[in-house]
Amino acid sequence: MANLSLRTLTKSYGQTEVLHGIDLDVADGEFVVFVGPSGCGKSTTLRMIAGLEEVTSGEVVIGDRVVNHLEPKERDIAMVFQNYAIYPHMSVKKNIAFGLRSSKMSKSDKEARITEVAGILDMTHLLDRKPAQLSGGQRQRVAIGRAMVRNPAVFLFDEPLSNLDAQLRTQMRLEIKKLHQRVGNTIIFVTHDQVEAMTMADRIVIMKDGHIQQVGTPSEVYHAPANTFVAQFIGAPSMNMLAGTLTKDGVVLASGQTIATQHANGTARSILLGVRPDDLTLEGAGQAIVTGHVAVREPLGAETLIYVKTDAGEIIAKADGRTPPEVGAEVTLSADGTNLHVFDADSGAVLR
Amino acid sequence: MTATDIRASSATLDRSAIVKPRNMGQIVRWLLLFLGGILMVMPIAYMISTSLKWPHEVYNVNLIPEEPTIENYTYVLEDGRFYWWFVNSIIIATITTISNLLFDSLVGYTLCKFRFPGRQIVFIAILSTLMIPTEMLVIPWYLMSQSMGWLDSYWGIMFPGLMTAFGTFLMKQFFESVPDDFIEAARIDGLNELQIWWTVAMPLVKPALAALAIFVFLGNWTAFLWPLIVTNSVEMYTIPVGLSGFGDEADVAWELIMTGAAISTIPTLVVFLIFQRFIIRGVVMAGLKG
After folding, report:
1. Do A14 and A61 belong to one domain?
2. Per-residue pLDDT tens for A150-176?
3. B79-286: which CATH architecture?
4. Does B278 reach chain A within 8 Å, measured CB to CB?
5. Complex ipTM tops 0.90
6. How far apart are CA A107 and CA A111, in angstroms?
7. Which of A313, B154, B233, B238 has the most CB atoms around its CB within 10 Å?
8. Could you say which residues of chain B have pLDDT below 70?
């Protein structure tokens, strides 16, 4: 196990810079998830940590070693790939043992280690099978087993669940989390799925266009997003954004309504008022934010998403699953002042 | 319904599926395939038929010999020359095949999986050699063999074919189907590049290797022009060169040539039967027609 640091890491392909100075410290044993839309640079960053991509400038530090110029095999890392990368011509056992090829362990120690890993991943009965005889989830476990067997300082996961169906993905998510609690190695996990990020991570690194947007615990990035991108990327449905002006009295929405916030400021400026669907209520608790008519309902069982047409645009809110308002009904959406987020309209940065 | 009933009904279904053509189009297709089959089989049948005939009957077109004999086989097999040609052909075809499997796949793998300046130029240069006919190359090859002292030797016969542009192209295309993740996973697992090629990439392109093995083996087994030019002594002939010389200047002993040809098809048949599962898959994957 080891901590990991990225210091002003950049990556360019020819004249095009795709990573613009990434700084990050990952503590020993921490589970960090890189999340962001396609092309944000999360996989590139992971591959630079693995040594599969050259570092244009900056440093990758694992433990106390700068590993920029070390071969992947010398970095004490193991990686699980999106399409598993388990060798179809080898049995499960050989696939797992493959990670120990260059190890100096004795044959009996290797056997013991393989048995131990197979036991942890509950695949002792699959050891003699070929990958073609395994299900998607089992293949993924073999890939994890091959990484685990070496007990690396850092585990790297490159979107390992994206090829699985929804149910299996949920199951594997839990298994990986349990595995981390059991083995305690440092894990860097890349995904484009914010639910995966929220459910698995100790800390989430949200990336966009080669920049880190925010680093924080799932709770921090959800409840205190640093900018409009994070606010809308994390959480489903996305945070509602209402255009308005920040004045000394509070936020004046385009509809003319004034909402008191703790951000009141003497200098008027254009802002976006963010409020999560979860934080909007129909019961009138808190201060009224907007009034409108229900345009669409999406029943989800325990709750129903309602799309409310207002003067300030369409707003999504959550209503009770059993007694949601009818389509066309007039509703007033309210929120607690502490759950309102104010962002600068130009930069998108949060105003605290 | 009992198990016997089920078996009986499924047998009936199978028979009807095989025997009954569904429409006229299918009848025409079958007829064309049948004619194609006849065209393929006839030369082989005629070769075997001729090998079982006495010399005086060779020019009769009948397929069934009037007085079948295995005398030709006895003669050819007891003739020391044929033994040498057979051994020469086996040695040359085997070594050339192994060499192609190794070097074509090494170069193909390198061109496919490594990024280096001039990669495309090298690949195009290799491919462009496919456009040069063998007939144009034999004189330079001969001059080279002569200056190197390779005339009338195994090395002389083999050297032009130890690596081929076609094989390199074929292997490169197949390595494209090996995901880079496999290579990178092996790199992280601590293998060097040669180990990755041998342990990870090569087993994944076995169909291509089998197909290439057959193409190269057959090509060398039946090669005529270059072995004819580079060899002088009868002991160094390969089967095609040797067989062409059966008989004398006045009379070509077709029954002996056909006998030798019939015997010489045995190794290719054996190789084909062993590898056909891989070969058919390989040829399909390569998008080539065998």
Report:
1. yes
2. 889 999 999 988 888 888 888 888 888
3. Orthogonal Bundle (1.10)
4. no
5. no
6. 6
7. B238
8. 1-21, 247-250, 279-290
